[in-house]
Amino acid sequence: MTLMKKRTIILIPYPAQGHVTPMLRLASLLSNLGLRPVVITPEFIHRRISPQINPEDGIRCLSITDGLDAETPPDFFSIERAMEENMPPILEALLRKMIDEEEEEGGGIACLVADLLASWAVDVARRCGVAAAGFWPAMHATYRLIAAIPHLIRTGVISESGCPRNPSAPICLSSNEPILTPNDLPWLIGSSSARISRFKFWTRTLQRAKTLRWLLTNTFPDECQSRKMTRCSNAQQVLEIGSLIMQALEISTGSFWENDLTCLDWLDKQTMGSVMYVSFGSWVSPIGEAKVKTLALSLQALRRPFIWVLGPTWRRGLPDGYVKSVAGHGRIVSWAPQLEVLQHPSVGCYLTHCGWNSTMEAIQCKKPLLCYPIAGDQFLNCAYIVNTWRIGVKIEGFGIEEVEDGIIKVTEDEQVSWRIERLYENLYGKEGSSKAMANLSTFIQDLGK
Asked: Which CATH number does 262-428 carry?
């Protein structure tokens, strides 16, 4: 059966904002290339994003039962249980029904693309006889770190349960990659039992990923200046398409929260390059009331214009009357249209948790970064931002001197601006975009074989 008859392609994102957004953009790209993308999410995600998707975008959104308690906000472990126990039989029944419907119409399912953090869907695709591809929504270096788990165990860097054997020993997978500390490993979050559970999640993900023929990555060629560092089986094609995903902006990215658009009007009134944008993303746990208070007092004392994305659960750390006291030079919003904020000429720098989407958007908008990683892959992203690409600085705390020093370093160093410009060209220039399109075309052509 030719690819033109098997035009439907299933996409399964991990159910978090930073994963759903790039998957929807990938769906938009595939739709523009003549495929019929169907994005399948658990109910609690579907309720948030489906009303925002324009039917004219050519994307169909379906939901599956997740079995989660609607009254309790889901966390990593409740989502993992739902993905491993509740969702597979529901997806399998839906997928078999779709296969039957497609065959009646003379078509078929071309492929199922699963976010690797939703690797449970790979097994479902295999049982249904559907080709599967992986989607890695972060930089490829993070995948290489996960793929190196067997090597790290074999060389004694970590134990069989993922615990560092020497907490002070540096980790370096190759001479071209930044040196990490054991605390930078993405599964080392929370209590000892939580860390072990997260490590099991990653090892299970790795085993499923090894079976895939294609791995689409939300990154760019030569992110680490060396193609020799790719640690994948010879049978697996790693196809970087990040620059295309970041430029697929004509589609609503399905924000889980309502954007406060008034901050854009406020930005219009500020001096060019004067504003610091502060956001720690949509998924990580709050940084703690004490740190919120310290940062709040530093921003107040600096009197530099700022926009701070601070959800209701984070605001308990703010001093009494704080929002009113900084109204002359600062705005605090629950959620912001981040790309539009970063594109604004009044924004001069970005204090970030170093999430990958945020990092890519900062490069796209040519904004230098103050880095305060909190969890997961953010530490590795930070290492590349600070040590490899040198387009930002890492701060260890939110004291006034450290924040002010960081701002000065990233906004007054002309070399930082020059390096961001170079990186931007690598990602979004003609060559980078052409490579990404060639990679995506290779994937689509392979589906037809």
From this structure: 3.40.50.2000
